[in-house]
Amino acid sequence: NMDSTLHYIHNDSDLSTNSSFSPEEERKSKVQDVVPQALLDQYLSMTDPSRAQTVDTEIAKHCAYSLPGVALTLGRQNWHCLKDTYETLASDMQWKVRRTLAFSIHELAVILGDQLTAGDLVPVFNGFLKDLDEVRIGVLKHLHDFLKLLHLDKRREYLYQLQEFLVTDNSRNWRFRAELAEQLILLLDLYSARDIYDYLRPIAFSLCADKVSSVRWISYKLVSEMVKKLYMASTSTFVVDLMNELVEKFCRCQKWSGRQTFVFICQVKCLFVYIFG
User: Fold this and answer.
1) Interatomic CA distance for residues 247 and 199, integer angstroms
2) Which phi and psi angles does 201 have, rounded to 5°?
């Protein structure tokens, strides 16, 4: 009964349900009326691992690259047609396939909306966070873009994991830490003053002492923006504690490099206004 099938497809309340289908029911679950069905079937068949081994080893990567476009064309109501394919690609043995998905997961989240993102994309996102650095950099570069789409309670869960971005497979991968500092600047707008002080402040101080100057320079801007954010908050105790820590850790540091760090932080946003004003 095609009418009942289409009713199921366009019913938003059924999009996130998980049930075991028979082969016939599974075929019907991938029926849509946006593009020719044969075209969609051909695309879905390209993700078959056996086909990737015998036809083209890069075919899965190309499918992963095109998936956000396919999802946008089909629309949010037809996500169930692509969900299994997306999960198959997200667990592909080739890291290049997973990396491609990691770089576009924030775009897919915009297409799907908050409910489908929380149910179907967050588990994949969490898996990417524990993947190789080549895959993790994809979610890190768009960390703010993805987290801002989540509800506040779900977003706060990632505060505990931000510290893990300081650890990389290769310690020489300084660009990874530089990107983390850039993203933390954007994340300041998503969290409360207490969250910034408790979770983002320790990471920022660690980045300020990085061995690579490019990472340190971005971190100076991060600390400066952090002071500004806490200064504008209704609770003033956090900014006072942060400034005291800056003075104790850097301004009164026995090493000249620490005192220089304090000067550079002040230089970024003229923080002497906050300290002595």
Assistant:
1) 20
2) -60, -50
CATH superfamily of 26-158: Leucine-rich Repeat Variant (1.25.10.10)
Residues in the chain: 277
Q: DSSP letter at 12? A: G
Concatenating the DSSP letter of every residue in 63-101 gives HHHHHHHHHHHH-GGGGGGTHHHHHHHHT-S-HHHHHHH
pLDDT tens string 235-245: 778 988 988 89
Instruction: Give me the DSSP letters along 114-164.
Output: HHHIIIIIHHHHHHHHTS-HHHHHHHHHTHHHHHTTS-HHHHHGGGGTGGG
pTM of the full predicted structure? 0.80
Q: Tell me if 120 sits within 8 A of 102, measured CB to CB.
A: no
Q: Domain limits of the chain?
A: 26-158, 168-276
Most confident of 12-16, 106-110, 170-174: 106-110
